[in-house]
Amino acid sequence: MKINTLEDLIYIREVGLKKLKPRDKVRVSVGMATCGISVGGDVVFEELKEKLKNRDDVLLTKTGCIGFCHVEPLVNVFIPGKGILIYHHVQTKDVKKIIDNFSEAEKLDNVLCQIDKWYHITSDEIVYGGGFTNIPRWSELGFFKPQRKLVMRNSGIINPEDIDEYIAVGGYSALFKALKKMTPEEIINEVKKSGLRGRGGAGFPTGVKWELAKNEQSDVKYVICNADEGDPGAYMNRNEMESDPHSVIEGMIIGGYAIGAHKGIIYIRAEYPLALYRLQKAINEAKNYGLLGKNILGSGFDFDITISKGAGAFVCGEETALIASIEGDIGRPRPRPPFPAQKGLWGKPTNINNVETWTNIPLIVKKGGDWFRGFGNEKSPGTKVFSLVGKVENVGLVEVELGTPIKTVVYDIGGGAPSGKKVKAVQTGGPSGGCIPTKFFDLPIDYENLTSVGSIMGSGGLVVMDENTCMVDTAKFFLDFTVDESCGKCVPCREGLKHMLFILENITKGNGKEEDIKTLEQLSETIKTTSLCGLGQTAPNPVITTIKYFKDEYLEHINNKRCPALVCATLIEFEIDQRKCTGCAVCAKRCPVKAIDGIIGIGETFRIDPNKCIKCGTCLDVCKLGAVIKTSKGVVNEKQGHTSSY
Amino acid sequence: MKSKDIQVLINGQEFKAKEGELVIDIARRNGIFIPALCYEESLKPYGACRMCIVEIKNEGVKKKITTSCTLQAFDGLSIETDSEEVLKHRKVLLELYLAQAPNSSKLKELALRYGVNRTRFRQKIRDDDPLNNSCVLCGLCVRVCSEVMSAGVINFIGRGEKTRVNTPYFEQSELCLGCRACAEVCPTGAIEFRDDGDIRIAASWSNTKVELKKCSMCGKYYAPVKLDKKIDTLYYYKDRDDELRDMCPDCRRKAIARKMTLIAENEVEKYAK
C-alpha cells in the first residue's frame, strides 16, 4: 500500500505496535547487529527459532544493538503487562530456560535489567510494563544512567528489518510533517536553529551546509550519506544503519526536500554487509509504502535513494575523495574550491552528511530546533554516540550529551580499566585524534574542547588506554594505519607520515636518537599545515599529543632503551623466576619457538633462551604460578597480560 | 560571465588581476617566482606537490598557509610567497622530495635555491625503478596523457607510499602515441624515451615501442605514426598540405621556403612582363 494521509500512517502505526507490543503474545528478540552476531547472537537466534517453531504464543524477532556490547548476546523478552526483560551473555544452553517458564522469567540469573518504558522521541513514551520485582530498570544501570539516547532512540528495541515497527515508534512522522506542513526554507531554518553540527568529525553547521547547496541554481542536485566509517575501533555508524536504518533514510528524504535534490546516494563500505542488507531492505520497504519514489506521501515531491558500495579506503570518507569514488575515479581528494555544494558529484551541487547527522534530522524536524538545543552545550548542541573501546570494562556504544566530561564516559559508563588497572589516557577521534591524559578528564567533550587539547571529535571513536599501554607504540599503531590509508596524492601525507613511522619504529626498537623528537615535531607541523585533505591535516595528532603529554616515555625509549609499559618487543625480555617455578613445563610445551628448556619437575632448571625468544608472551599467559616475568631494563611487572596496547 | 577587475597584493606589491584567477598565474605573469612541481597552466588545478604554498595575510582567514595553484584571487587579497612560515614548511617538503627522488638533478637544483642540500630522511633507492628514482608522483604526466592527449596510457598504480606511475600491469601499451608530452612536462626529468632507428622506445613506460614515420624527402625518422594519425583527426589540422604531410619538420621548412621563393620569382616575372 502507499501511505498518503495521516490516517494511513496511523493505521500502519497500529499494525507496528501490535508487533512491538503484542497484546497476547510474548515477544522474544535477539540483539543481532554485527556486534551481537559476532559473539553468537545468530546461533542463539537459530536455537530459539528451532525451539519455538511449534509455539504460537511467542513472537520471535531480531533487534539491533542497545549499545551494551560488552554483555552480548542480549535477548529481550517482552511479556505483556509486565515489560521487557533483558538477558545478557545468552548462550544456546540458556535458551530452553528462557522460553520454558515465562511466568518466572525474572528468576534467571543472567537478567541484566528491565525496560519499563522507553522514549522513542518521535512518538510519545511507550510504556512496556515495569512489573518485574527486584530487577533494576535499565535507566538505573551505571552504564545507561548518564546516557541520553537521541540517535540510538530505537536501537535494540525495534526490529530494524520491519518498517512497521519504525512507524510504530513515530517513524516517518517527521517526514510527513516536513512534506505536508513545512517549506524547504522552514526546514533549513529549523536545522540552523538546532545548531546541529556535522557528526563526521569536522563539526560544520549542518543548516549552513544545506543552505549553501539549496542556494545553488541547478536542475540536478544530490544528497549523499557518508557511511564510509573506517576508523579502527569505531562502529557507531555501522550500528546506526544496522539497528535503525529507516532513521537514516527519513533524514535523507527530508534533506533532499530541503535543498531541492531528487536523488540520494548512500556511500557505504562493502565491509558492512549486514548494514548494506538492512539499508537495501529498508529502501525497498519505504518504496512499497510510497515513502521513496514518485510523489512521496502525495506531496508531489520525488526522491530516490541508491546505494553505492565503497571498497573500504579510509580516505574515501573525505568528501571530495568520496565523490571521486562514486564517479568511478581513484578515491583521491580533489582540491577545493569548488566545494561539493557548488560542484560535487558529476559537477552538480551536492550535500554530504554523515550517517549520524542524518539520523538527527527527523528529531529536529519533529521536535523543533529549540528542543534539540536543550541537549548538549551552547556551541555543540545535541548528543554524540561514541564507541567506547580499548582497556575499559564496559565496551560498547554510548550516547551522551555533548559537554559530558570525559571521566563520566570512561569511569561512570565505561567502568574504568579492567581488573583495577589505572587508566592512563583516552584517544578520541580515530587514527587522526590525539591521546588525552587523565589530567584533562574533567574536560566536557565537545568539538572545541577536544581541539584545544590537541585531539579531535572525529566520528566518535574513544579508545581507553591503561598503564599497560605504551604511548610510543600507540602513536606507532595509529601512524601505521594512516600511512597505509594515505591515498598518496600529496607529498606531506604520503612521504612525511612514512618517515614519521620509520622514526617511531626506530625508537621502539631502541635505536632512537634525542633529535628524533624534534624531527617528529617538525614533520608533524609541516604535514598538518600543508596536507591537501583532512587525513593528512590530522594524521600527526597521535604523535603530537603523545610527545606533548608523555614525553618521558619517549625519552625512556630513546635514552634508557626501556619500555616502561613493557610493550615494545625489542626492549623487553621474558625470564623465569626460579623460586616460583615448579618445573611443570607448560610454558615449554606452549612456546611456539621452543625457546624454553628444562628438566620436568625441577623448577630451577627452566630457562628462556633470549636468542630464540620472539617475545610473544605465551609463557606469561599460560603460567599459573606467576613464575614468568617480563622486564625491561629494570622495570619489572609480574603477571600481567601480554597483549599489544591496542 | 565577465569577471571583475581586482587588486591583489603579492609580497606587498600591488597587481591587477581578474576575480577568481589563480594566484600562481598572477604571480608568474608578473615575474614572481613560486616553485611548483605539479602545476601546469593547460591542466586542471591538482594541488598535490604543495610546493606553491603561500601565506595569506588578510585578517580573519582561518587557513593561513595554502597552495597558490588552488587559491582564487579576490579583491584585496594579500599574500606572501616566501614568508618565514612558508619557507619553513617548503624546506621540510624539499627534504621529503630529496629522500623520495634522490636521483633528480632538477630537484636538487630547486632544493639548493632554498638552501636545502641534504635530507634527514631515509632515501628510497630502487635498482629497478623505471623512473630512475626521480619520480615525485606529481601526476603531470598522467594528467597530460589523459587530459591533453586523450590517450590515457599511464596512471597511478597502488596507493599511498606504494603509489607508482606506469602502464597497466607494467605491460607495453598499445595506446601510447609516443608524443613524449609526459617527458616534456615532468618537473624532475624522470621519464626516459629513446629513438632507435624506426622505433621510439618509452623506456620508462615498460619499454613500450612506437613506430616512427620516415620523412619522404630525407628519409629521417621523425615522428610516431600513431601521433601523426591522431593529429589528422584534430579539426584544426584537417587541411594539412598533402605534399608536406609526410615530411620531417626540417624538410617541411625547406619545402615551404622553396615554394615561397618560387611564388616570389613568379610574381617578379609577372611584374616584369
Structural commentary:
With 646 residues, chain A is an alpha/beta fold. Chain A is 37% helix and 16% strand. In chain A, helix 3 crosses helix 4 and helix 17 runs antiparallel to helix 18. Chain A is globular, with a radius of gyration of 27 Å. Mean pLDDT of chain A is 92; it is low at 641-646. With 273 residues, chain B is α+β, with helices and mostly antiparallel strands. Chain B folds into two domains: 5-82, Roll (Ubiquitin-like (UB roll)), CATH 3.10.20; 129-246, 2-Layer Sandwich (Alpha-Beta Plaits). Chain B has helices spanning 23-29, 84-100, 105-113, 140-148, 181-185, 225-233, 249-272, and strands spanning 5-10, 13-18, 53-56, 65-67, 78-80, 155-157, 164-166, 193-196, 199-202, 208-214, 221-224. Chain B has a five-stranded mixed sheet with strand order 2-1-5-3-4, with helices on one face. In chain B, helix 2 (84-100) packs antiparallel against helix 3 (105-113). In chain B, 33% of the residues are buried. The interface between A and B is medium-sized, with 31 and 34 residues.
Secondary-structure blueprint:
The complex is a heterodimer of chains A (646) and B (273).
Chain A: H1 6-20, E1 26-31, H2 34-38, H3 41-51, E2 58-63, E3 75-79, E4 83-87, H4 92-100, E5 111-115, E6 117-118, E7 126-127, H5 163-168, H6 173-181, H7 184-194, H8 206-215, E8 222-227, H9 236-243, H10 245-259, E9 263-269, H11 273-288, E10 304-310, H12 319-326, E11 350-354, H13 355-367, H14 369-373, E12 383-390, E13 396-401, H15 406-413, E14 423-428, E15 435-437, H16 447-452, E16 461-466, H17 471-485, H18 491-508, H19 515-530, H20 534-538, H21 541-549, H22 551-559, E17 573-576, H23 586-590, E18 596-597, E19 607-608, H24 618-622, E20 628-632, E21 635-638
Chain B: E1 5-10, E2 13-18, H1 23-29, E3 53-56, E4 65-67, E5 78-80, H2 84-100, H3 105-113, H4 140-148, E6 155-157, E7 164-166, H5 181-185, E8 193-196, E9 199-202, E10 208-214, E11 221-224, H6 225-233, H7 249-272
Parallel strand pairs in B: 1-5
Antiparallel strand pairs in B: 1-2, 3-4, 3-5, 6-7, 8-9, 9-10, 10-11
Helix pairs in contact in B: 2-3
